[in-house]
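To the wet lab folks,

You asked to see what we're planning to order before we commit. Fair enough. Below is the target structure as tokens, and below that is the sequence we designed to fit it. If anything looks off to you, flag it before the synthesis order goes out.
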């Protein structure tokens, strides 16, 4: 049982498995990848894949298949459903010792449109070394914007239309954007958007040849 004073719920914490592929490491779980680190430096706090309902609640997942292969690299495969099978999802994660980490999520609503306020990847950044740091944003049309992470929690979304992010973390500097190729759905004036066809989302961290010491 979890401590509700810390976690806000008494539900037990999900089991996590530590994965290390060379200097790249993270915690694997059925709801997120957590504490993604490169040479011990936290690059991403969490990469999650919540499926929201029409009221912004998060659908609990039913896992149908989980395969983990920690050979020369790492390959993880998670097949799950939400809403009693109304949406079928397949998550595929690959990690290489060179530092490349790729996640792909395919969501299939079948014959009946699935109504959701948001579906796809959610990326949480660490605070230390990131808050207030310079940030280069690549937009979907290929243009780049020079901005920065908020120094304090922002009530508004500081960056829009993200296709890639480039910034520094500790002694490491990303010399190419962390790639984001994903689709997600938000509420609009007409309410939740129906997902009526299979959609694939992709997110990746570049290889170590693109991470350099500052």
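Sequence we intend to order:
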């Amino acid at each position: 049982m979890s401590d509700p004073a810390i976690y806000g719920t008494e539900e037990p914490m999900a089991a996590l498995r530590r994965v290390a592929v060379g200097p790249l490491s993270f915690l694997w779980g059925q709801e997120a990848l957590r504490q993604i680190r490169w040479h011990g430096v936290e690059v991403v706090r969490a990469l999650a894949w919540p499926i929201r309902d029409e009221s912004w609640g998060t659908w609990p997942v039913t896992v149908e298949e989980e395969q983990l292969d920690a050979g020369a690299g790492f390959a993880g495969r998670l097949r799950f459903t939400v809403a009693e099978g109304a949406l079928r999802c397949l998550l595929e994660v690959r990690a290489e010792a060179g530092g490349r980490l790729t996640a792909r999520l395919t969501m299939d609503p079948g014959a009946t449109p699935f109504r959701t306020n948001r579906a796809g990847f959610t990326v949480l950044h660490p605070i230390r070394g990131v808050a207030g740091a310079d940030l280069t944003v690549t937009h979907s049309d290929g243009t780049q914007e020079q901005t920065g992470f908020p120094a304090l929690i922002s009530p508004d979304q500081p960056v829009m239309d993200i296709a890639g992010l480039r910034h520094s973390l500790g002694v490491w500097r990303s010399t190419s954007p962390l790639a984001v190729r994903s689709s997600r759905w938000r509420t609009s004036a007409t309410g939740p958007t129906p997902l009526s066809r299979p959609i694939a989302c992709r997110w990746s961290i570049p290889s170590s040849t693109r991470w350099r010491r500052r």
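Structural context that might help your review: The longest strand covers residues 74-82. The chain has a mean pLDDT of 82.

Thanks,
Computational group
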